[in-house]
Every structure is written in structure tokens, then in C-alpha cells.
User: Which sequence fits this backbone?
């Protein structure tokens, strides 16, 4: 029994999610009527996207450090 | 012989008209209080209604996601692990970014509308013609004797006559609705609560910053922090301070459909909040000299005048 995802898998997943969140936070309108019934705190969404972006960079750094030097 | 009788009659008439005026005012004040409490109840209900679905969705997604993640451990499945991670993440996102502070912008107008209608009615019935004047409050930490503590609250004075004379400090400190000398009324500014939010959001006290600092702070808090308007410009023009607001959240209050007079004189909650902030920072009396709204309601312009108290 072990976790099936490696660091590179998680890194890729984080990258994809970050892009989705960043694009959403930029396109989303502060006025709820343009987004139907679903209202979301835009500032927090952007903050989360930026944090995930930073996490992605950390995973990349980890992989660079872990890879053998040529 | 007839003269004294006619005098008595006119005295009686004067008395009865004063009494009816007072009872009318009492009724209107009661109406105003009732409407405000109703508004508050409705706002709370709406918040509760809005908060429930996103919380439920968030918790459901987190639970399902966690179960799938555990299953991925057991089955050592990459697909299940991705699904689990995704579900857990979106569940957490729903909880983190749920709309606690957001209500539909149309609701802002409907909650404020009744208050403005009542102010209009009171001003019409009492035939008050004076220009509303924002009176700056004393700083919260300033020492004042007990009987003057009411001066720490922001008020708007509406004079009965066109020529504005300010009431005495003692008169204002009583926190009465109707002021006798000079005749007029004192109300809480519609933007008073907004200014408190501005200060809380910025972590600043408007009585302790200069005008340049206030101009920058207002622009930041209105456009970026609270998103009450898409743009906010403020600049000093000779004796007046000019403010231009684009796409204000309160723009519909200026609609011809409502025919509100007080929105132009006292200001909508946003322009009133700006007046409150100016009064606090300058420590001077502030009036809205004039306001202009574009026909499509997109742009609101207001010119503020500061007067030495």
C-alpha cells in the first residue's frame, strides 16, 4: 500500500490547477449577476492561485536538486 | 371685543398645527426605525441563504475526495489518486473562497431605498430646505465630558432654512433628531457604516492621515479592496473637491424611476462615505455642493465643499 503519485505527477497537477485558477480569477467578474448564482471571493481565489504557483516552483526546485548532475 | 377671541383662535390653531407636526414626525421616525430593522433581518436571511449551499458543496467534495484518496492508497491507482486530489482541492476551495461577504449588488439599492424615501418624506413634510452639512466627529480617544460624548459620532445636519447656521455643541451632543436652535434635524450619514469598513479594511484612522493619504486610501479601498466601483478619481479643484466614480454599486439609486431628492443632497452611501471621510480628515464641515449623474448612470460626479466650523 503506497501513494501512487510521484513528485512529478503532483507537480504537473499543481501547474494545471494553478493555470485554471489564475485564468478564472482574472476572468471572473466582481458583480455576481455575470456569474449566475455562484458567487466567489475573487481576491482569495487569486491568492490561492499564487500560493499554488509558488508550491509548483518549489516542486520544480526539488526535482532539480534531486536530479543527478551531468 | 372680537380681537382677543381671534387671537385665542390663532393661538389654538398654532398649537394644534405644532402638535400634528410633532406626531407626524414621530410616526415618520418610527417608520424609519421599523424599515431599518426589517432591512437588517432581510440582509441576515439572505446571508444565511447564500452561505449554506457553498458550505454543503465544499464539505461533500472534501469527504468524497478523502474517501477516493484512501481508495487510491489501497488500490495503488494513479487515476483514483488524481480524482481524490481534485475533489479534495475543489472542496477546500469552495470553503476557502465562499461568498461570506458578498450579496447581489441590486440588493444594496433595495436596502437603501426605503431609508432615502423616508428622509425625502421627512424633509418634504417639515419643509426643510437647508443643504445637508456633514459635521466631523471628535476623535475617539479625545477626552470629552460626559454630556459632550455624543460629539464623537458623525452626524449630518439639515437646516430648516436655506441659510445654514450650525447648532451649538451642547445641542449636537444631545443626539436628538430634531434640533430647535437653529431649527433643523440631525441624522446619521448613510455612508457612516461604510467609512468604518473603509478604516477597518485599511487599518487606518481617517482623523490621523492627511488629505493626500486619504485620496490614495479611498481609491484603493473603493476600487481594489471592496470593489464598490470600477474607478474612483478624486482631486482638489480650487475650493471644491471633485470626485468621479464610475460604475458605482449604488448607481441605481440615482435612477429617475425612484425620484429621490436626498440622494443628491445627502449623497448615496458611497458619496456620503466620501463626505464623512473628508470631514474626518479635514476636521471641517463638509457639504455636497453639487452632484451630476450621467444619463446611463455609469458616472457619478460630486463636488464637495469644506467649511471652517
Assistant:
Amino acid at each position: 500500500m503506497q501513494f501512487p503519485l510521484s513528485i512529478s505527477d503532483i507537480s504537473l497537477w499543481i501547474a494545471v490547477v494553478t493555470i485554471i485558477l489564475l485564468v478564472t480569477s482574472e476572468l471572473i467578474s466582481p458583480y455576481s449577476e455575470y456569474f449566475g448564482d455562484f458567487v466567489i471571493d475573487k481576491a482569495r481565489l487569486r491568492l490561492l492561485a499564487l500560493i499554488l504557483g509558488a508550491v509548483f516552483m518549489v516542486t520544480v526546485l526539488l526535482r532539480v536538486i534531486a536530479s543527478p548532475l551531468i | 371685543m372680537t380681537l382677543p377671541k381671534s387671537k385665542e383662535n390663532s393661538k389654538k390653531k398654532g398649537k394644534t398645527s405644532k402638535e400634528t407636526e410633532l406626531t407626524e414626525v414621530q410616526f415618520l421616525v418610527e417608520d424609519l426605525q421599523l424599515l431599518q430593522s426589517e432591512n437588517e433581518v432581510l440582509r441576515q436571511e439572505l446571508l444565511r441563504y447564500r452561505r449554506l449551499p457553498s458550505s454543503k458543496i465544499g464539505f461533500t467534495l472534501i469527504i468524497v475526495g478523502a474517501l477516493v484518496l484512501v481508495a487510491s492508497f489501497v488500490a495503488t491507482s494513479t487515476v483514483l489518486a488524481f480524482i481524490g486530489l481534485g475533489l479534495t482541492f475543489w472542496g477546500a476551495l469552495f470553503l476557502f473562497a465562499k461568498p461570506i461577504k458578498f450579496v447581489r449588488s441590486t440588493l444594496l439599492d433595495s436596502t437603501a431605498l426605503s431609508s432615502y424615501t423616508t428622509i425625502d418624506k421627512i424633509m418634504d413634510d417639515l419643509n426643510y430646505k437647508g443643504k445637508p452639512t456633514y459635521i466631523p466627529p471628535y476623535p475617539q480617544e479625545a477626552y470629552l465630558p460626559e454630556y459632550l460624548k455624543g460629539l464623537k459620532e458623525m452626524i449630518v445636519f439639515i437646516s430648516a432654512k436655506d441659510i445654514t447656521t450650525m447648532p451649538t455643541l451642547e445641542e449636537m451632543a444631545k443626539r436628538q433628531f430634531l434640533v430647535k436652535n437653529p431649527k433643523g434635524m440631525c441624522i446619521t450619514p448613510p455612508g457612516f457604516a461604510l467609512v468604518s469598513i473603509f478604516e477597518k479594511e485599511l487599518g487606518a484612522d481617517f482623523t490621523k492621515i492627511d488629505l493626500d493619504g486619504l485620496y490614495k486610501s479611498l481609491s484603493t479601498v473603493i476600487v481594489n479592496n471592496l470593489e464598490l466601483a470600477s474607478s474612483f478619481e478624486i482631486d482638489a479643484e480650487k475650493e471644491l473637491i471633485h470626485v468621479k466614480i464610475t460604475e458605482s454599486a449604488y448607481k441605481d439609486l440615482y435612477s429617475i424611476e425612484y425620484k429621490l431628492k436626498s440622494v443628491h443632497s445627502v449623497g448615496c452611501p458611497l458619496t456620503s462615505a466620501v463626505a464623512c471621510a473628508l470631514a474626518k480628515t479635514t476636521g471641517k464641515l463638509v457639504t455636497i455642493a453639487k452632484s451630476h449623474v450621467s444619463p446611463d448612470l455609469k458616472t457619478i460626479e460630486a463636488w464637495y465643499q469644506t467649511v471652517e466650523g
Notes: The first helix of chain A runs from residue 7 to 27. The interface with chain B takes residues 1-5, 9-10, 13, 17, 30-33, 39-42, 44-45, 48 of chain A (CB under 8 Å). The CA atoms of residues 16 and 53 of chain A lie 10 Å apart.
